[in-house]
Amino acid sequence: MKLRFDRSLGWQLGLGFTLLAGISAIAVGVYLFHARQHLGANYTALVADVVRPQLHTTLLRSTLNEFREQPQDNQLIERFDNLLWRIPRHIEGVTFGLSQSRLAPGSYESYLNRLNSVKERLPDIKQALDEVASGEPPDQLIQQGLTIENDMAQAYSKLSHLLHSEAAKQRIVMDRLAVGIAILILVILLLAGGLMLALIRLHHQHKKVLKLSLMDELTGLGNRRYMLNVTELLFEQSQRSGLPLSMALLDLDHFKRVNDNFGHPAGDQVLRAFADALCDEVRKADIVARLGGEEFCVLMPETNAEGALEVVERIRKRVAGLSHQELGVPTAVTVSLGLATADNHDTSFDHLYGRADQALYEAKTSGRNRVVVD
Ligand SMILES: Nc1nc2c(ncn2[C@@H]2O[C@H](COP(=O)(O)OP(=O)(O)OP(=O)(O)O)[C@@H](O)[C@H]2O)c(=O)[nH]1
């Protein structure tokens, strides 16, 4: 039940985080789609394109003012001529920059129209300048010059304002995007962390269940499945290496009486005391398992018949000598044992098991509390 709960919790966590990551990704995607106008637009270069002619507009005004005082100054005429040459180039530069930008044409068209009308009036101003150079008074030049200066100043100022506000919007978009992506990354990290945690928990649960499936809960020994898992391997190793493998089957005598006389819990206590005694008497390399009920098994790798007989006799005596206190019941218990050692005739583990079982049967039928070697 617990495992099912943990597994569904793991799935729920994973699903929840995946949904969250998906929604965050969609939100960032939708935002990107709507904000694409602002992404990648280089407003800095455009602002520079507009600021430069704004400076020239100021220069144009100051030059016109100087004309009032020194209309025939050649340097002044040359500077003005140079400005007249630059103005259309700036207008063309700004027009090109805006056409390449992601700005909606409707937002800047009226300012460009105003600049283009300035461009159209430049030949007249050039003619007025030539007249001033040939000695005419500068009044007309100043009047026409101030008109275009005013038009340019207004158009460039509006454009500058437009570009600054678009750049500010771009900054907001980028900031929001950065926050969105940070949240997305956080959710993905949480998702990965949550999934890892769920996997680790599942792995622990799996190991626990696996252990429980191979363990006898009452005695803490391996169960029949554990014994079968291990012994097939031990048997094959023994067959390959030629080293002996001995197997003892043990069955408590008249155990039913213990249950009948002292109750089932007392019987359980006896089984536990018996398992402890068994483990005390065998080596670490030996395998001890409870096969079911009051039947146990000891597998002794690299132990010949003689050595195994010594061990099982020791076990038998130890069990018979268990005190009432150790057993938890006011009676003695004994055990019958059947012993077999693998030889060339044992083609499978089942064969060896069959021999040990037969020996145990003989130990039971010939009076119990004894070892019979097959
Ligand atoms: N307390 C307890 N008793 C168990 C457990 N498993 C099996 N038993 C009991 O063990 C008894 C085995 O009885 P039998 O198969 O007749 O064997 P026995 O009385 O030991 O007689 P022999 O084996 O012929 O000497 C039964 O009463 C089962 O109920 C257990 O986990 N706990």
UniProtKB/TrEMBL annotation:
Xref: Pfam families: GGDEF
Keyword Disulfide bond tagged: no
Highest taxon in the source lineage: Bacteria
Designated name of the protein: diguanylate cyclase
A GO CC term attached to the entry: plasma membrane
Reaction equation(s) it catalyzes: 2 GTP = 3',3'-c-di-GMP + 2 diphosphate
PROSITE patterns for this protein: GGDEF
Annotated organism of origin: Vreelandella subterranea
